[in-house]
Design a protein that fits this description.
By secondary structure, the protein is mainly α. It is flat and about 55 Å long. The chain contains five helices and no strands. Helix 2 runs antiparallel to helix 3 and helix 4 packs across helix 5. The termini are far apart. About 65% of the residues lie in helices and about 0% in strands.
Length: about 180
């Protein structure tokens, strides 16, 4: 065996198994395509009266609808013409981590349900706390259940949500649900 043959063997890609079915990729493309078409249909009901700078309120929905429709069409074409080529092997766990999904979903749903009752800052802090707990548990971090981790996550969530709330309410004059009438909490 010569050096050239060894180098060629090292550079050549490993032999692939049977080609994967193009249907999952096609379904993703069809989903993106239908989402774009649905958004375009919804954009027809938005007023096109020109606002600031000659751009109406339906401009951005139309841009996103066109982009999604084009991307969906390209994904379907790519899937039907041989599938996605040169894809990396799938990464991550073999199965979904359902308890992490429950933690993150609980955070999102509680945020949506409690934001008008306990205010933006506290509901977003709770959302962050629960979502990070789910991600920590999915990663197998043993410290996830410790009280100091919960406190650190709650403080971090507060440190993120409070400046966002203040930036929107105090500097941009956008009303977000607050806990008090002062506009600072």
């Amino acid at each position: 065996m010569t050096t050239t043959e060894t180098l060629a063997d090292a550079v050549s890609p490993p032999e692939a198994g049977p080609p994967a079915s193009p249907w999952p990729q096609t379904l993703v493309g069809v989903g993106v395509l239908l989402t774009g078409l649905g958004l375009g249909f919804g954009a027809t009901g938005i007023s096109s009266d020109a606002g600031y700078g000659g751009v109406g309120p339906n401009f951005l929905p139309w841009v996103v609808a066109i982009a999604l429709t084009l991307c969906g069409g390209f994904i379907v074409w790519e899937a039907r013409s041989g599938g996605f080529r040169a894809m990396d092997a799938p990464s991550g766990a073999e199965q979904a981590h359902w308890s992490a999904f429950v933690w993150v979903s609980a955070g999102l749903l509680l945020n949506a349900g409690l934001i008008t009752h306990i205010g933006f800052i506290l509901s977003c802090t709770l959302c962050y706390l629960l979502a990070v707990q789910g991600l920590r548990r999915a990663a197998g971090q043993p410290a996830a259940a410790q009280p100091k981790t919960w406190v650190a996550d709650a403080l971090t969530g507060f440190a993120i949500s409070a400046p966002v709330f203040w930036a929107f309410t105090q500097f941009l004059a956008i009303n977000l649900p607050g806990l008090t009438a002062t506009g600072w909490f």
